[in-house]
Amino acid sequence: MKVTMNKPERSIWVFGDYRNYFQNRVTLQLLARARELAAEIKAEVAAVVFGSRVDEYVGEYVAHGAQTVYVVDDPVLRDYSVETYVALAEGLIRRYRPEIFLIGATDFGREFAPRIAKRLETGLTADCIGLEINADGLLVQTAPSFGGNLIAAIITPEKRPQMATVRPGTFKELPHDAAAVGRIVSVPLPDDLPRARVRLVHSERKPPREQRIEDAGIVICGGRGMGSRARFKKLFEMARIMGAEVGATRPVVHSRWVDHECLVGQAGKTIRPQILFSFGVSGAIQHTAAIHDAELIIAVNKNPNAAMMKMADVAIVADAGQFCSALIRELRRRIRE
Ligand SMILES: Cc1cc2nc3c(=O)[nH]c(=O)nc-3n(C[C@H](O)[C@H](O)[C@H](O)COP(=O)(O)OP(=O)(O)OC[C@H]3O[C@@H](n4cnc5c(N)ncnc54)[C@H](O)[C@@H]3O)c2cc1C
Known about the structure:
Elements: E1 11-15, H1 26-41, E2 44-51, H2 55-63, E3 68-73, H3 82-96, E4 100-104, H4 107-120, E5 124-128, E6 130-133, E7 139-145, E8 150-154, E9 162-166, E10 183-186, E11 218-222, H5 229-242, E12 245-248, H6 250-254, E13 275-279, H7 285-288, E14 296-301, H8 307-311, E15 314-317, H9 320-336
Parallel strand pairs: 1-2, 1-4, 2-3, 3-10, 4-9, 5-9, 11-12, 11-13, 13-14, 14-15
Antiparallel strand pairs: 6-7, 7-8
Helix pairs in contact: 3-4, 5-9
The structure holds flavin-adenine dinucleotide.
């Protein structure tokens, strides 16, 4: 069903970031949280989707909590271009005036959201790890601030929309409801859309990981204390034996021992495993902010006073590399038995 609507409504919008849909669930997680927030301020939840042949995603968003979906579907939008997507979002927001606009803190969201906030002269809280509604009906956006040394609760009292990017894994998506019905607002491509200055020549999909680190039951996280890329590789060997995923701290990613997608922390993923192994990690707040929901933490560090050791349920004072090799040997022995 296609309906055109002109009257602005009180609504919470979630940007439909459907690229890498099956791995990246942040849009669905935001729709779920938006439904809870919307109940408190009596608003509706809408997804905003730009692209070409996006019917499938529109349906998915409705099944996961979107009551309305604003769609701009045109071949021109097949490849993401920041200029065109920002211009489209700005136009729609000026027209329909949502109260709140939520975007996943993906690479894409981090590029897209600040530009929209600037054009609309509204505030934006980046990398939120919590969203609430306060007694005045304002969105309280919780985010690590001042290099992660403080967790700040930020509101946008005057400007609209209240905008936030939210870290993947912060909220849980709603179960898929095939019977859900949503209103589809089909918006034509505006005539004055700016031409993209960047042309996509070629794109290639990375092979998917076995499982997403955000969903993994066991995560093995390594820090600078692993000492070298070669020693860090042992963590992958251990992960294969345990059926775990490997995470890393920022210095490890900066040293290119692993890809950015392994980064756990304020600038990376939030994880909630049943068991978290932490090898040679100091426990800086920018890292630990993303591991609070781990059920059992086992830390190995040569410094018994490291913050990570204080946070751990089991703290083992040892050389991380040597401990890791010994554990792999023991695991192999038990598999053979
Ligand atoms: C804005 C901002 C965002 C950030 N975002 C993130 C983020 O998302 N994720 C993140 O991780 N960091 C982030 N950081 C960086 C963060 O502040 C820390 O610098 C980082 O987490 C430290 O990583 P590390 O524990 O691996 O290294 P270090 O702090 O160097 O700690 C190494 C640890 O290993 C131990 N060690 C050394 N040798 C051994 C050994 N042989 N055996 C056992 N233990 C040993 C040491 O005792 C120490 O505790 C951010 C910083 C800023 C300013």
